[in-house]
Amino acid sequence: MNRETLLAYAKKQYKTVPDYPWKSSPGNAVLRHMDSRKWYGLIMCIPREKLGLPQSGMVDILNVKCDPVFAASLQNNQGIFPAYHMNHAEWISILLDGTVNEEQVFDLLDLSFSLTDSAKKRVQNRGPMEWIIPANPKYYDVEEDFKKSNFIDWKQSSNVRVGDTVYLYMGAPVSAILYKLKAIEVDIPYHYEDKFLHMNRVMRLQLLERYDESLYPMSLLKEHGVFAVRGPRSMPGSLSLKINRKVKS
Questions:
Q1: Is the pLDDT of residue 9 over 60?
Q2: Which alpha helices (DSSP H) does the chain contain, by range?
Q3: Model confidence over 41-78: pLDDT tens digits?
């Protein structure tokens, strides 16, 4: 992981062109929302000693916004620190020198994008929407829960509302959409935390359909503009038609 990889991801995922607003620090890059221009990331090159690191020299870091409780727990992880030159309660600094793995950096950038997205304030006035949400089979056996009930509680995605459709994308080694669900209740207070996950709200999802893993793999998703599912994202209309109308390729 380095700044070039991160900027390439931000461009592909969010169409972000970095802003370099400081003449005195021409290498410092701000990542902004296209509509509101609010920051969701800040890349800086700083002396390693500023983070209390023993080595000398400079290092690239990424500042992202984070849930305060989650931020406090993350700061126990190697390569993640209280935010340099920003609010320590809501922002963290991440080393971009390979200490933190690429997947986690992308996930934290996605979280920051969601937390700083002004559009979510307008969500309550819109009609039902469709979302793709990732699941990691290494940490949670979804099918085992569905054997017990057609309902599961899932970490609340800020933009999902009652009546929305949720497609559950199962990560590697499956790498395919396996379930279609409906949000029947949202913003349920719930507290859970381990080294992989922090939750303070959940949404209740009802199982509508199961799919064979051969039907909607990542290779098909890419044909419809979905190149990664690292966090909740809206469902492309063409992919929705493919699934719901079973349009033949």
A1: yes
A2: 3-14, 68-74, 102-115, 142-148, 218-223, 237-244
A3: 999 999 999 988 888 899 999 999 987 777 777 877 88
CA distances (Å), origin 76, targets 11, 115, 148: 30, 22, 36
**DSSP track, 155-216:** EPPTT--TT-EEEEEETTTT-EEEEEEEEEEEEEEEEEE-SS-EEEEEEEEEEEEE--TTTS
Residues 6+ apart with CB under 8 A from 89: 68, 71
Residue 35 banded pLDDT, cuts 50, 70, 90: confident
How far is the C-alpha of 81 from the C-alpha of 125, rounded, in Å?
38
Residue 10, token pair as written in the block: 């931000």
A 10 A CB-CB count for 13 gives 17
- Going by the DSSP 8-state scheme, the letter that residue 121 receives in this structure is G
CA distance 3 to 38: 20
